[in-house]
Request: fold
Amino acid sequence: DDSLITARDLSVGFKIGSGFFGKSILKAVDHVDIDIAKGSFFGLVGESGSGKTTLGRALLKAVPITGGTAHYRDGEVDYDLTTLSGPALKDYRKRAQLIFQDPYAALSPRMTVRDIIAEPLEVMGLTKTREETDARVREIAAKCRLNLEHLRRFPHAFSGGQRQRISIARALVSGPQFIVADESVAALDVSIQADVLNLLKQIQRDLGITFLFISHDLSVVAHTCDHVAVMYLGRLVESAPTRTLFAAPRHPYTKALFSAIPSLDPDDRGRAQKLEGEIPSPTNQPSGCKFHTRCPFAIDRCRAEEPLLEHPGDGHEVACHRWRELLAETAA
Ligand code: SF4
Reply:
């Protein structure tokens, strides 16, 4: 098995408010199975409220896992993320890092770029002397295409793309094997997005780091990720290698997301299947298949029974009662 991260039935619930029957639970991540291959650039997509950010945080142990199992396996190391604590948790903090969503908010305005990048080394006690720290900071800064002059300055002197490179350097400095990049390019201009994405891809190739790349933007994911998983209201509804998913999506929700991407092929334009309505509130989720309130193919069974993620054996997983039937219809 070449998975760095494996989760089964993973759930994250938050207690909210206090209703008539006591506190209610918001299921932000609901029985998710996920396998993230070592060295891959794994995309996780969904609308806001789909649970993708919470899933990423749970895999970093930044929010508590409330159900199921999750493991990080690398060589001899096998960490059970549901129980990890003490020195093993400390070690995991080195191995698993987050790149922040918004490079404008993430960097302390009162610290120099050098200090921002060096901070994790100092907090985790990874270097012993200032010289050692400086050498490591310089090495990582160069990888992220920052120069020595940049290190003496404060973040406000930099553009959004440069700030994102500073955030990436900070995430890389502890030598992680797993990085969760949450909407890391969403706040940037399109031309700069490409720059930052290229840098992340280069880091993946050069350092063999595994990325979980979280985005609401399928076109960004299409160009960067090896594998894509789609979430809807806390559920993982489809997961496949990127090419397979884009060539032949199986879940009606994925199909709807794709048709929202403007097509250059005039033959495609008429076929767009519009995604109707809003994503339901996570606190008041539909019964059965959570997508039934927006799905043009919903039948009675969909309202009554929640579809499980099927593993048909071709690496293309899907959670829909009707996917085989719909596939046959498209082929006909
Ligand atoms: Fe649509 Fe039913 Fe499939 Fe859900 S299970 S996506 S409602 S067809």
Summary: The chain has a mean pLDDT of 89. The pocket of iron/sulfur cluster is lined by residues 251-252, 289, 291-292, 295, 297-298, 302, 307, 320-322 (CB under 6 Å). The longest helix spans residues 190-207.
